[in-house]
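In the current project phase, our protein records have gained a C-alpha coordinate line. A sample record follows, to show the layout:
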Amino acid sequence: MTRQTSFGGGELAVILPGTWAAIPLDDPEAASKRISALVKSQVGRSDRLARVRRDVKSQLEGVVADARSGDVFSLALSMEILPGVPFPAAMSMSKENWPIADDPDSEVSRIVRAYPQATPVELSIGTVARSSRVTSQRYDEQSAPELVVDYRFPAPGGEHVIRVHVNAPMAYEDELYLELFDAIVDSITFREPLAVAD
Protein backbone atom coordinates (compact mmCIF):
# COMPACT_ATOMS: atom_id res chain seq x y z
CA MET A 1 0.00 0.00 0.00
CA THR A 2 1.30 3.46 -0.85
CA ARG A 3 0.23 6.19 1.54
CA GLN A 4 0.35 9.80 0.33
CA THR A 5 0.06 12.88 2.51
CA SER A 6 0.15 16.54 1.51
CA PHE A 7 3.23 18.13 3.02
CA GLY A 8 4.82 21.55 2.57
CA GLY A 9 3.26 22.25 -0.81
CA GLY A 10 4.07 18.75 -2.10
CA GLU A 11 3.31 15.15 -1.26
CA LEU A 12 5.02 12.71 1.04
CA ALA A 13 4.59 9.12 -0.15
CA VAL A 14 5.54 5.98 1.79
CA ILE A 15 5.19 2.32 0.83
CA LEU A 16 3.53 0.24 3.56
CA PRO A 17 3.79 -3.55 3.16
CA GLY A 18 0.69 -5.63 3.77
CA THR A 19 -2.63 -4.15 4.90
CA TRP A 20 -2.78 -0.86 6.79
CA ALA A 21 -5.69 1.34 7.89
CA ALA A 22 -5.49 5.13 7.87
CA ILE A 23 -7.10 6.86 10.84
CA PRO A 24 -8.63 10.32 10.26
CA LEU A 25 -7.13 12.76 12.78
CA ASP A 26 -9.19 15.85 11.96
CA ASP A 27 -12.58 14.29 12.88
CA PRO A 28 -12.82 12.60 16.32
CA GLU A 29 -16.19 11.00 15.52
CA ALA A 30 -14.90 9.52 12.25
CA ALA A 31 -11.77 8.26 14.06
CA SER A 32 -13.90 6.57 16.74
CA LYS A 33 -16.11 4.90 14.12
CA ARG A 34 -13.05 3.74 12.16
CA ILE A 35 -11.48 2.27 15.31
CA SER A 36 -14.70 0.46 16.27
CA ALA A 37 -14.97 -1.05 12.79
CA LEU A 38 -11.32 -2.14 12.83
CA VAL A 39 -11.63 -3.74 16.26
CA LYS A 40 -14.76 -5.67 15.24
CA SER A 41 -13.14 -6.91 12.02
CA GLN A 42 -9.84 -7.87 13.69
CA VAL A 43 -11.05 -9.22 17.06
CA GLY A 44 -14.46 -10.55 16.07
CA ARG A 45 -17.97 -10.11 17.48
CA SER A 46 -18.11 -13.02 19.92
CA ASP A 47 -19.47 -12.12 23.37
CA ARG A 48 -16.52 -13.86 25.03
CA LEU A 49 -14.17 -11.36 23.32
CA ALA A 50 -15.99 -8.27 24.64
CA ARG A 51 -13.23 -7.46 27.14
CA VAL A 52 -10.52 -7.85 24.49
CA ARG A 53 -12.47 -5.54 22.15
CA ARG A 54 -12.75 -2.91 24.92
CA ASP A 55 -9.02 -3.16 25.74
CA VAL A 56 -7.93 -2.92 22.09
CA LYS A 57 -10.35 -0.05 21.40
CA SER A 58 -9.07 1.80 24.45
CA GLN A 59 -5.44 1.32 23.35
CA LEU A 60 -6.17 2.56 19.83
CA GLU A 61 -8.08 5.56 21.13
CA GLY A 62 -5.01 6.36 23.26
CA VAL A 63 -2.80 6.21 20.17
CA VAL A 64 -5.16 8.58 18.34
CA ALA A 65 -5.33 10.96 21.33
CA ASP A 66 -1.51 11.07 21.50
CA ALA A 67 -1.36 11.72 17.76
CA ARG A 68 -3.90 14.54 18.02
CA SER A 69 -2.01 16.21 20.89
CA GLY A 70 1.11 16.54 18.72
CA ASP A 71 1.69 17.89 15.25
CA VAL A 72 0.87 14.53 13.61
CA PHE A 73 -0.21 14.69 9.99
CA SER A 74 -0.54 10.94 9.28
CA LEU A 75 -1.51 7.90 11.36
CA ALA A 76 -1.70 4.35 10.03
CA LEU A 77 -2.38 1.04 11.78
CA SER A 78 -1.08 -2.25 10.42
CA MET A 79 -3.52 -5.12 10.15
CA GLU A 80 -1.60 -7.84 8.27
CA ILE A 81 1.92 -8.15 6.92
CA LEU A 82 0.72 -10.91 4.54
CA PRO A 83 -2.81 -12.25 3.93
CA GLY A 84 -3.81 -14.13 7.08
CA VAL A 85 -0.68 -13.07 9.00
CA PRO A 86 -1.61 -10.47 11.65
CA PHE A 87 0.95 -7.74 12.26
CA PRO A 88 -0.01 -5.17 14.90
CA ALA A 89 1.80 -1.84 14.59
CA ALA A 90 1.02 1.87 14.58
CA MET A 91 2.99 4.43 12.61
CA SER A 92 2.55 8.19 12.83
CA MET A 93 4.32 11.06 11.09
CA SER A 94 4.67 14.54 12.51
CA LYS A 95 6.52 17.77 11.89
CA GLU A 96 8.82 19.08 14.66
CA ASN A 97 11.01 22.11 15.21
CA TRP A 98 14.77 21.59 15.21
CA PRO A 99 16.04 21.18 18.79
CA ILE A 100 19.28 23.04 17.92
CA ALA A 101 20.27 26.11 15.92
CA ASP A 102 21.20 25.93 12.23
CA ASP A 103 24.42 24.09 11.35
CA PRO A 104 26.59 25.97 8.87
CA ASP A 105 28.26 22.75 7.70
CA SER A 106 25.45 20.46 6.55
CA GLU A 107 22.08 18.90 7.31
CA VAL A 108 23.90 15.62 8.04
CA SER A 109 25.98 17.07 10.87
CA ARG A 110 22.93 18.98 12.10
CA ILE A 111 20.76 15.85 12.39
CA VAL A 112 23.58 13.98 14.17
CA ARG A 113 24.18 16.86 16.59
CA ALA A 114 20.44 17.38 17.17
CA TYR A 115 19.88 13.77 18.27
CA PRO A 116 23.17 12.58 19.82
CA GLN A 117 21.57 9.54 21.54
CA ALA A 118 20.17 8.24 18.24
CA THR A 119 21.89 5.94 15.75
CA PRO A 120 22.62 7.64 12.40
CA VAL A 121 21.25 5.45 9.60
CA GLU A 122 21.98 6.10 5.92
CA LEU A 123 18.83 5.75 3.84
CA SER A 124 17.83 6.95 0.38
CA ILE A 125 16.37 10.16 1.90
CA GLY A 126 19.73 10.89 3.56
CA THR A 127 20.99 10.52 7.12
CA VAL A 128 18.23 9.58 9.53
CA ALA A 129 18.49 9.66 13.33
CA ARG A 130 16.96 6.42 14.64
CA SER A 131 16.31 5.72 18.29
CA SER A 132 14.65 2.54 19.51
CA ARG A 133 13.79 0.76 22.71
CA VAL A 134 12.02 -2.43 23.72
CA THR A 135 9.58 -2.22 26.61
CA SER A 136 7.29 -4.79 28.19
CA GLN A 137 3.55 -4.42 27.56
CA ARG A 138 0.99 -6.26 29.69
CA TYR A 139 -1.97 -7.98 27.97
CA ASP A 140 -4.44 -9.49 30.40
CA GLU A 141 -2.24 -11.83 32.49
CA GLN A 142 0.68 -12.05 30.06
CA SER A 143 3.35 -9.63 28.98
CA ALA A 144 4.99 -9.20 25.59
CA PRO A 145 7.78 -7.01 24.22
CA GLU A 146 6.85 -3.77 22.47
CA LEU A 147 9.25 -2.06 20.09
CA VAL A 148 9.14 1.75 20.01
CA VAL A 149 11.14 3.47 17.26
CA ASP A 150 11.60 7.11 16.31
CA TYR A 151 13.10 8.22 13.01
CA ARG A 152 13.95 11.89 12.46
CA PHE A 153 15.20 13.56 9.30
CA PRO A 154 15.13 17.03 7.73
CA ALA A 155 11.92 18.02 5.98
CA PRO A 156 12.23 19.42 2.44
CA GLY A 157 13.69 22.91 2.72
CA GLY A 158 15.34 22.02 6.03
CA GLU A 159 13.17 24.29 8.20
CA HIS A 160 11.65 21.42 10.20
CA VAL A 161 12.28 17.81 11.15
CA ILE A 162 9.96 14.96 10.22
CA ARG A 163 9.45 12.38 12.94
CA VAL A 164 8.22 8.88 12.10
CA HIS A 165 7.07 7.21 15.31
CA VAL A 166 6.43 3.45 15.42
CA ASN A 167 4.80 1.29 18.11
CA ALA A 168 5.04 -2.44 17.43
CA PRO A 169 3.54 -4.60 20.18
CA MET A 170 4.48 -8.27 20.38
CA ALA A 171 7.81 -7.59 18.66
CA TYR A 172 9.55 -10.80 19.67
CA GLU A 173 12.21 -10.39 16.96
CA ASP A 174 13.04 -6.71 17.43
CA GLU A 175 16.01 -6.74 15.01
CA LEU A 176 13.80 -8.05 12.21
CA TYR A 177 11.16 -5.44 13.04
CA LEU A 178 13.84 -2.72 12.91
CA GLU A 179 14.93 -3.92 9.47
CA LEU A 180 11.33 -3.80 8.27
CA PHE A 181 10.71 -0.27 9.58
CA ASP A 182 14.08 0.91 8.23
CA ALA A 183 12.89 -0.30 4.81
CA ILE A 184 9.53 1.47 5.22
CA VAL A 185 11.19 4.77 6.13
CA ASP A 186 13.65 4.22 3.27
CA SER A 187 10.66 4.14 0.88
CA ILE A 188 9.64 7.73 1.76
CA THR A 189 9.74 10.14 -1.16
CA PHE A 190 8.72 13.77 -1.62
CA ARG A 191 7.25 14.95 -4.89
CA GLU A 192 5.19 17.67 -6.45
CA PRO A 193 1.41 17.17 -6.12
CA LEU A 194 -0.07 15.10 -8.94
CA ALA A 195 -2.00 17.17 -11.46
CA VAL A 196 -5.78 16.97 -11.18
CA ALA A 197 -7.52 16.20 -14.47
CA ASP A 198 -10.05 18.84 -15.60
